[in-house]
Amino acid sequence: MKALVYHGPGRRSWEDVPDPAVKSPDDAVVRVDCVTICGTDLHILKGDVATAEPGRVLGHEAVGTVEEVGSNVRTVAPGDRVLVSCISACGRCRYCREARYGQCLGGGGWILGHRIDGTQAERVRVPFADTSAYKLPADVSDEDAVLLADILPTSYEVGVLAAGVRPGDTVVVVGAGPVGLAAILTARLFSPAHVIAVDPAPGRRQAAAAVGADVLLDPDDDVLARVRDLTDGLGADVAVEAVGIPATFESCVELVRPGGHVANVGVHGSPATLHLETAWIRDLTITTGLVDTATTPVLLRMLAAGQLGVTGLVTHRFGLDEMQDAYDVFSRPADTGVLKVALFRGA
């Protein structure tokens, strides 16, 4: 089959690789019908993720059709259309029993496209298929469903839920890329008073408005002054960091009020400074995390019910064999205006 293979920092190729096969009784082999590219894939290609070794098939988000299952698999069967989650869960270890699947000790966690071959291919082996693949309702499209493989549960869990967003809050989302937009969309479920989007790209600020941001700021604006104007001089209740660079993390710490919460969602490839000399007295809570995807079933029900307005998050579409072109577009958002890409079998 064809697959997108990582060959070390800055090097990738769309090439022939062996077809996947069931290796464990808990596995499924899934034909990939729709796949996308994540910012984390770009981090791997930059060399930021040392645990991703050259030769790895990238990708951890897909919708597809089950072709084969191991003898222990009970919840999906050949012919089923499924969502392949970015997180695999053994379902038996201490962390899985706490629904912290991202920290799975039994061979799961974030492994697809990281420690084992991933989804940017014509087929993929899905470990722990009973707990890591989800049957899809017929009325949910592949394009919409693939957004639930990573960015929506990530933003919802690591951003909105971890930060405890409440009705009437002022929420600042720094970075209006796909993850930031998903954070805005899911924060709106809790009726905050304001959702402020901060991003240098006018197109991304417009996208933020479309999914629910009511205040749009360029980083060159006096963001701190604008936030304090909206909050009686205090600062935001919640700041969601959705970029993954030191400057945006440090900005989030500055933007929240005393007693506020910084939820770091971005993937960082270099150290950021925590200014404890000024922050220690402010009663701040700072959280980080890898998504667990424990909320995927809830989000899927909401999507099927029309309660998640994901239209517009996918801006560019390709055939699966146009993977290299899709990477080129996705890696240059300032030039291409891309948010999320979707690649389809046979498109």
Automatic annotation (TrEMBL):
It comes from the Bacteria. Pfam families: ADH_N, ADH_zinc_N. InterPro entries: ADH-like_C (IPR013149), ADH-like_N (IPR013154), ADH_Zn_CS (IPR002328), ER (IPR020843), GroES-like_sf (IPR011032), NAD(P)-bd_dom_sf (IPR036291). Keywords: Metal-binding, Oxidoreductase, Zinc. Gene3D superfamilies: Medium-chain alcohol dehydrogenases, catalytic domain, NAD(P)-binding Rossmann-like Domain. Residues 1-20 are annotated as: Disordered. Its cofactor is Zn(2+). One of its GO terms (molecular function) is zinc ion binding. Signal peptide: none annotated. Residues 10-343 form the Enoyl reductase (ER) domain. Belongs to the zinc-containing alcohol dehydrogenase family. This is Alcohol dehydrogenase. The lineage of its organism: Bacteria, Bacillati, Actinomycetota, Actinomycetes, Jiangellales.
